[in-house]
Amino acid sequence: MIKPGIFAAIAMFALATNAQAGAAPGGSDAKEVSVPFAGRNISDFRADGDSAVYLQVNGFDWYHGQLMGPCTQLPFAERIGVETRGTDTLDRYATLIVRDQRCQLTSLVKGAPPKKAKKH
Description:
Helices cover 16% and strands 33% of the residues. The chain is α+β, with helices and mostly antiparallel strands. A hairpin with a 4-residue loop joins strand 2 and strand 3 (52-57).
């Protein structure tokens, strides 16, 4: 027979695990997105260190992509390619091609890069 205290602990663990599985990376409430026809319509990008990138699609909406690991060439890249594996849909399964490096996305959420500070 399971003691009530152990049962409660198991139930709380299961609830915490389910809550974490649905959460977006970084603890934000942003939802994973999928952008159709975006593979050929990326108009701008900005590196967010070497493990994330901001991508602008069609000159309007910005998306933040988290990478599986460091993409060392990303902060220095002047252009990037996107491999969507035949679907032409930008999502967390896409791969960025940066110079000679393949950088796998693990997350894609809607979000613009931070504003640059104005010089006085």
